[in-house]
Amino acid sequence: MYAYTSLYSSLEKGAVTEKTITFVVSRTPKKLFSYLKRIRKYSIEKSEAGVYNVIGDYYPIQVINTLEVSENENLLLKCLTSNLKIPLVNTLLAESEKHKEWSHLLAAYFNVIIKANEERFEEAYKMATRTLDDVLIKIGAAANFEARADELRKHKIAQNMIKEGFSIDMISKITELEPEKVESLIAEMS
Questions:
Q1: What is the pTM assigned to this prediction?
Q2: What integer pLDDT is reported at residue 94 of this predicted model?
Q3: Which residue among 18, 48, 69 closes a domain?
């Protein structure tokens, strides 16, 4: 993390201390906190439910425990998990519709959240009275979601064709995947 933060700091204007290293966890990292306190002589301050600040390092460090974060106070932080529950997905979608001013920020956020919770978003989509497509279009993430789904379909077809013994050229022609990609799939399946 230090290397990435330092590299990013060198590429961006502003003081190094203006960058924050943030760890998002789904349980309190007791061993890490113990190490930081005993060995590194840092202190840990809980600034609010689920948000811990590590004091004593050159870079500001934050640890966010998504299980402790309040849904009402920090919905966006609460959803930074790969284990979202369907009601929370629905709340997030409803809130994103209420706050149109977030749309330019939410596209990247939703891309990460959807990748980490693909099955739950598909389930929420099936259960929702409004369509997920509308929300994705509003926040500008629909094209990414559709492209990913199309890519997954092509890979599945290619894998089935590989199992049936089709040639690389034929698989590439039918799936529109590059021959190198088909070769990569063959290598993965071997």
A1: 0.57
A2: 80
A3: 69
